[in-house]
Amino acid sequence: MESIITREAAWELLRKYNKDPFHLQHALTVEGVMRWYAEQLGFASEVDFWGMVGLLHDIDFELYPEEHCIKAPELLREGGVGEEMIHAICSHGYGITVDVKPEHLMEKVLFATDELTGLIWAAALMRPSKSVQDMELKSLKKKYKSKGFAAGCSREVIEQGAEMLGWPLDEVLQKTLDAMRDCEARVASEMEEI
Question: Looking at residue 2, what is its pLDDT?
Fold first, then answer.
């Protein structure tokens, strides 16, 4: 899998359509999580591709929330993004806004972890440390099970993603928590430059 655009160009493209710090931080977090998974799952040679899919996955969400993953191909093509990456990005809207099915392992990882990163970040903000570094799986599971907590993060989508991957939910939770621990400092550093 080759990226047609550079990481710098992808970041510029994202910033063209996204100004809200919350959305930018989410994009950077999902980028970091996807890069971690690529390394862990034996796709080290594709780490940049996986990362850019994570970075650009919500490119259309801020300006076109009602057309999420529908407007994205147009914005991505204008930015020089290749069709393989566009398919991967749009697949995280499968069954929600589009019928682009996640097929590659990377697409299934994105589907499973996108909503979950939001839930984990919300849980981290409730901690005295405001960090995932000291978060345990047990406390994450407690927040996950609380329906009122981070209600906008669809447990159904997360569970569907775990099923697509063929992994127990606890494994998806733990791995994504580990991935967020790994990229938290880089995300914070990049957010300071905005």
Answer: 60
